[in-house]
């Protein structure tokens, strides 16, 4: 029963994050919000050094933490400065 309770809490916490992002972004597609959240977490993780990435992961709810670490191979960050993360282009925007 304890495991079931923990899983339910992890799922509910993840659903709350997605619902909050849907509201903040004013998007109506939960799947789109989920994909954007995971892509953003992976991009952020990959811009951090391994110690910072682990610290960041520890702050996430359990289920999101698993998605955050999925496919991660700790290496030095691809971007030398965290500020480059912020300036990354938005793939949803199309240049004219």
How would you portray this structure in words?
The protein has 96 residues and is mainly α. 66% of the residues lie in helices and 0% in strands. It has five helices and no strands. α1 (2-25) packs across α2 and α2 runs antiparallel to α3. The longest helix is centred in the N-terminal third of the chain and has 24 residues, at 2-25.
Q: What does the average pLDDT come to?
A: 84
What is the number of E strands?
Answer: 0
Structural class: mainly alpha
How much of the sequence is in beta strands? under 5%
Radius of gyration: 15 Å
Tell me the overall shape.
Answer: flat
* Main sheet summary: none
String of helices and strands: HHHHH
**Can you count the helices?**
5
State the helicity in percent bands.
55-70%
Distance between the termini: 55 Å
Point out poorly predicted stretches: none
Question: How would you summarize what this structure contains?
Answer:
With 96 residues, this protein is mainly α. The chain has helices at 2-25, 30-47, 50-58, 62-69, 83-86.
Question: How are the SSEs placed, and which strands pair?
Answer:
Elements: H1 2-25, H2 30-47, H3 50-58, H4 62-69, H5 83-86
Helix pairs in contact: 1-2, 2-3, 2-4
Defining key terms:
5 helices, mainly alpha, single chain, 66% helix, 96 residues, flat
């Amino acid at each position: 029963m304890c495991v079931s309770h923990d899983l339910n809490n992890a799922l509910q916490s993840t659903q709350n994050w997605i619902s909050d992002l849907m509201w903040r972004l004013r998007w109506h597609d939960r799947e789109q919000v989920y994909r954007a959240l995971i892509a953003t977490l992976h991009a952020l993780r990959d811009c951090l050094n391994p110690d910072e990435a682990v610290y960041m992961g520890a702050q996430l709810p359990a289920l999101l933490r698993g998605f955050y670490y999925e496919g991660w191979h700790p290496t030095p960050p691809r971007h030398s400065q965290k500020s480059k993360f912020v300036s990354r282009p938005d793939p949803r925007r199309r240049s004219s």
